[in-house]
């Protein structure tokens, strides 16, 4: 719907509290807050302050109230009641950002509201501004659910034991470090890179032909291409990119699980830079 492209008052759902939020208490009591902890979307930082009082090594980030973006990786990341006020593409951006700054052995926890009966704009009871609220369902493991909230545990995709059927992309090696992950796809470095930073975007469902991939997964893969391109630009400073995919053996596909290549290009990479994608093929 046209009126839902921007939820400019989403940050006004943050409220002052004198006590730990329920998700924070739950994770604390279950001893799930390990190592260096980040509260992503911490609002006014109430949980950060209260958890520090309990000797938790925690940092807060919020684009509106604590805007210094984290510059290193964390053992545990919490994200409470953020996704409910974001549209789907923005939700996936948050999940990808969190997956990117989580250590390979780490875990993230998302709390979402379960007391919402319908989606839509409503006037916030404290801030008196229209804020959009969405019903959110994630693909990650559900740790807790009641009528008010649900807490999900995110474990990196390649750290989860899966079905035994062999597919290298359905069962990525645990030793790999994911670049990022979303509800629908994940990104890794190519095992046989054409250039420095050559990466793959891989949907989480087994489908060999890109054109048979559900549109929701196609859309998310390209959103992840945009996300990963920014990371590669920051890390490697390439001079250009080739982006594309192969379909079936005649099209050069080696692994029969859809994947998109994002290949940084450099002025001196000896790949006939004036030929573009034709040279890569």
From TrEMBL:
Active-site positions on this chain: 259 (tele-amp-histidine intermediate)
Superkingdom: Bacteria
Protein name: Histidine triad (HIT) protein
A Pfam family this chain is assigned to: HIT
Gene Ontology molecular functions: catalytic activity
Listed Gene3D superfamilies: HIT-like, Vaccinia Virus protein VP39
Alphabetized InterPro entries for the sequence: AP-4-A_phosphorylase, Histidine_triad_CS, Histidine_triad_HIT, HIT-like, HIT-like_sf, SAM-dependent_MTases_sf
Span of the annotated motif Histidine triad motif: 257-261
All residue ranges annotated as the HIT domain in the record: 165-272
Signal peptide: none
